Fold each of these.
Amino acid sequence: MASMLSQLSPSVTNQIRMDHTHVLTAFHQYEIGSSARVKRGLVDHVCLAIEIHAQLEEEIFYPALRAVADSEILRKATPEHDEMRGLIARLRYMPVDDPVFNDTFFALMRHVMHHVADEETLLLPAAERLLPEQLGALGAEMSRRRLELAGPRAPEIAGSVARSLSLGAMLAAGSAALAGAHLLTRHRTADRLSAARSRSSRLGS
Ligand SMILES: [Fe+2]
Ligand SMILES: [Fe+2]
């Protein structure tokens, strides 16, 4: 199993980018005028994806990067996750028709977008510069841990998809990614982009 994971897993940085894309794509489906059922399904799905992603980064990615780098962005990454967790806890128990439901979700997504921008423009490139030999092994470790975390929450994942039936196809694809189905479809495009990025960064240095 361990060797299969290391062969099939995207690198840790590409896995993080894929998670970000998934969360932002789900957010872009959110409309104030949608039914309560669709909004509940989308919000629950986004919240679960953020929770699993944040835990994976805190257990695997941040410690690896901290071992070779120190920066304000890296130090504030986990406290920012905690702010997101606070908003997620409020959303979980808030009825969709609460007057501040939309604003609370938008506040969460403002935090997410700011945080994702810092990670994608600073932390991921730093990891690719400083840890090039470890990205594959860290990706395999992240895939293994993802399966552990997503497995017990499969009913939640399925429930959020079912509640937003009109978005079912998109969320079903996202749920598969959340649960680690990328292991079965190696992301050659992402790997090619990564190789091109590192080639251009070498040319630029
Ligand atoms: Fe993060
Ligand atoms: Fe992230």
Amino acid sequence: MSQHEDISKVYDLIVIGGGINGAGIAVDAAGRGLKVALLESVDFASGTSSRSSKLVHGGLRYLEYYDFRLVRESLSERERVMKKARHIVWPLRFVMPVVKQSRPAWIVRIGLFFYDHLAPRVTLQGTETVRLSKKTNRMGFREHYDKAFIYSDCWVDDARLVVANLQGAEAEGADILARTPFKNAERDGDNWLVTALDQDSGRTLKLRANVIVNAAGPWAVPIAQSVPGVTTDYSAKLVRGSHIIVPSLYDGDNATMLQIGDGRIVVTMPYENDYTLVGTTDENHPGDPRRVEITDQEQDYLLAAANKFFTRQITADDIHWTYSGVRPLFEEGKSRDDNPTTVTRDYSFKIDQGADGKGAPFLTVLGGKLTTYRRLADHVIEKLKPFLPPDIGPAHTGTSILPGADIGSEGPFAYAETLKLVFPWLPDTLRIRLARTYGSRVEKMLAGVEKLEDLGTVFGGNMTRREVDYLIENEWAASVEDVLWRRTKCGLRFSEDETKALSDYIEKARALTAPKEAAS
Ligand SMILES: Cc1cc2nc3c(=O)[nH]c(=O)nc-3n(C[C@H](O)[C@H](O)[C@H](O)COP(=O)(O)OP(=O)(O)OC[C@H]3O[C@@H](n4cnc5c(N)ncnc54)[C@H](O)[C@@H]3O)c2cc1C
């Protein structure tokens, strides 16, 4: 890790924000030979990028709002992102029952026809029409529902997609700095002088760059507004989406798309083996983007949605975990109306070059989806080309794969089978979890280990000391939240005491490595 290096060089690009967009821009730029630094104030993916609905999807409902550009781009990205990150992105079949009081079946079918054909589809299956009454246990649905469509999208481990991109960027020479908030910047001659704070050491960093890319998601507008000489003719308000995690609502590995009476959509999908994820809501969030929590009202809304459709009925007591995220809704004629549900999920950029229009550029990223992060990054670099060295390398992210994704074309479950040969002593649940969390990196994590006991203390669930050490040494993990809720979701199976013990261990382990890092 280059966390404590003394940085005195001039970067081509400094990226603010270690969410999916910042990470995607960093790997794209570094892979083209640019000198890149990325600043993240807390932990990578600690903003919206660990709080999404976990879909790499075309966005079926955006067709209703005629967002054809966005839907086409998103659809074409599904298989590309799946190839790039096979270990953490895989196909998901969605069951969408026809609801009498909602959109007519023929309209939904036409929408799905477009969904299947707007962009090339190679491996993902097309739409089929089914009768739930002919399926085992009606696929978990209540008897009110019979006709249904089944179509394809993809599942993604959002926070791990961020880390994989950052590992890729670091491998290409980028300086990736966690817990290092951007503080301010000023134009100095032809470039920027940036001040950031290394929170681990308490040191103030001064960095020089030709271009700043502000990819701070919900924080992007306040950051742009705080930089002297940057004009912001746009503002943002935040919209919150919440999810609940409950014991599995149905058998099977399909997701569902539920048309709620108010015209909105709720999705459910299998989550971490024993659970179902239900989301999302769309509520204005006037507060701090770091303090995002589900309200009782949102909880009731999601419970009612699930109970309306599934035989297995649930109450608030069944909620095992919740999480919420915010998306910034930009106000500059981009939104069609004030309704957070119908506002576009498309992205755009603002470039500021100071009052005379000739200063060092400050590019702010507005909006976006996980699904389109790679295209967004590509567009950012294209847009910045006039300000970048002329010998910049070609676009590469459309074909390159991310660290951990070299697991063969059959996906993580088939890869987990092959791991049986290498690590026959690994219990099945642990082997499968490691394969779909780390992909081929699991072989690095377990190199030299010959028996289960050598993995060390079990902190909780099936998380061992070996895995925790790997996360600290290789994935910038520095706190119990990083380990249990972003790099993994093992927090679902940890008790309070286990969490405390792990937290103490991480603190000690980091204290031991800190002097070594400072000396390097
Ligand atoms: C509820 C919900 C569900 C969603 N579901 C999906 C989905 O299923 N599929 C999909 O494609 N998209 C989905 N999206 C959209 C997607 O999650 C977001 O577009 C994406 O995560 C935004 O990434 P980002 O990098 O722009 O922002 P973020 O992930 O928020 O990253 C910004 C980063 O900037 C950092 N930061 C803030 N201030 C500073 C500073 N001063 N210095 C340094 N760093 C700073 C933050 O800590 C944060 O890590 C969803 C969004 C929401 C809200």
